[in-house]
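User: quick one, sequence for these tokens?
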């Protein structure tokens, strides 16, 4: 379990203290510290702390707090994933600081242990970099009352792109088996192999054109692993999440309204690195998207027995 937090002044030797429920926080994991410098001219500084709690027991409630000798957070709790194969997720994208109509319900239900994980499919805060990244602070404080209790899994959206996704990369800690900066990664959860990737590599080439091919090659390798027979038997559901959809029926001239949407068919004109064929060939079962601020679902005609 990864725990991530931030402070405005440096607190050396910070850590997570934790224990089983009703015990006395006797376990400790040191945090790694990194300096975040906001990309605006004010160069506001935050310090980011990450600690990975290891050797946890499944389906067990732990309590923890984070901090240092300079001060401690309140005490929070989380439950490690249960042994049962059924898992419950809350899935959404495009959640802002203003008009966050779902926030109260999500906070309450996360605290009441309704979910095994949250999947936030890109676009945070609107925007995290605003006001020298203070809007990012405000957003993280809002979702703290969710993410302190339940794994909060993310992928990048177009609203994270400023300063090369630096707020997004710095404020979350996702599995490190992809690019190592939260842009693409995968993990197994219950019966599912879940892949998070960046549709943004298709749109913001100023941050490195090579990211498109790097991610594409990684996705293919990851899907090869997931479809090896012993893995597919163990994790029969392959689920992807990316922010900008391959398809939509909105009339707003966004990328997904075009026949050749970039995540679907690849780069304009040359049509390389498109994901539709790869996801089809490897039998991806469910693709989760956001960005359009509307609800749509599409039936997979290649698998008529699956209703989405
Ligand atoms: Fe978006």
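Assistant:
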């Amino acid at each position: 379990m990864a725990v991530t937090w931030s402070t405005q002044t440096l607190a050396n030797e910070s850590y997570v203290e934790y224990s089983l429920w009703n015990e006395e926080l006797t376990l400790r994991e040191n945090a790694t510290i990194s300096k975040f410098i906001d990309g605006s001219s004010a160069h506001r500084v935050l310090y980011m702390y990450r600690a990975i709690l290891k050797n946890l027991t499944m389906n067990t409630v732990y309590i923890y707090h984070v901090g240092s000798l300079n001060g401690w957070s309140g005490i929070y709790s989380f439950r490690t994933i249960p042994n049962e194969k059924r898992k419950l997720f809350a899935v959404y994208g495009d959640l802002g600081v203003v008009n966050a109509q779902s926030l109260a319900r999500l906070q309450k239900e996360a605290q009441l242990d309704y979910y095994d994980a949250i999947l936030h499919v890109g676009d945070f805060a609107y925007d995290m970099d605003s006001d020298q990244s203070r809007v990012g602070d405000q957003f993280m404080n809002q979702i703290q009352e969710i993410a302190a209790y339940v794994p909060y899994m993310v992928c990048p959206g177009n609203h994270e792109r400023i300063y090369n996704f630096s707020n997004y990369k710095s404020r979350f800690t996702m599995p490190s088996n992809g690019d190592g900066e939260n842009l693409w990664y995968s993990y197994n959860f219950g019966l599912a192999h879940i892949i998070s990737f960046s549709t943004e590599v298709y749109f913001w080439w100023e941050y490195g054109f090579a990211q498109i091919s790097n991610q594409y090659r990684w996705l293919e390798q990851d899907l090869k692993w997931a479809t090896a027979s012993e893995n597919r038997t163990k994790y029969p559901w392959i689920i992807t999440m990316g922010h900008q959809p391959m398809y939509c029926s909105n009339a707003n001239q966004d990328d997904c309204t075009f026949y050749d949407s970039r995540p679907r068919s690849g780069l304009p004109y040359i049509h390389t690195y498109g994901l539709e064929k790869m996801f089809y060939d490897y039998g991806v079962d469910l693709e989760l998207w956001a960005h359009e601020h509307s609800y749509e679902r599409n039936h997979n005609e290649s698998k008529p027995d699956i209703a989405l």
